[in-house]
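Q: Structure tokens for this one, please.
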Amino acid sequence: MYGVKGKGLPFFFAVLLAVWSLLFYSGCDDAYWGAAEVEAPPNNLPDIIIMSPLDGEIFTEGESITFSTSVYDVDEGAIMDNCKVWTSSIDGEIGRGAFFSRDDLSVGVHVITLTARDSEGDTASVSVRITINPVSGS
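A: Here is the predicted structure, written as tokens:
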């Protein structure tokens, strides 16, 4: 008889079953494995921290204001600078990136919003309110 010495008939049937399974159940046939849909994990929005300016901070017209942030996305790590857009409720878009300064914001109360966009196009936003006062005596 052919086969491995000492294995006998049980070994022959085990090999036969393995070959039969490979021939007739290769792949993930729903009828054999059971139907199961696999969904992609949901996209997490970027986490945003505005480090400066601080909410409620007051500046004088012409004063240099530093804008800095930390943006992280659980799904992809750091967000590219061109995907971090800073806007002012008075002056519109005022900059892009994680760090820059401006000294030309208009007098008034600004809502500064940082919007970060991940590679899937989803956005998250955080806002702070700052005040730009006119120069004394103006």
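A few notes: The chain is about 15% helix and 40% strand. The mean pLDDT is 82.
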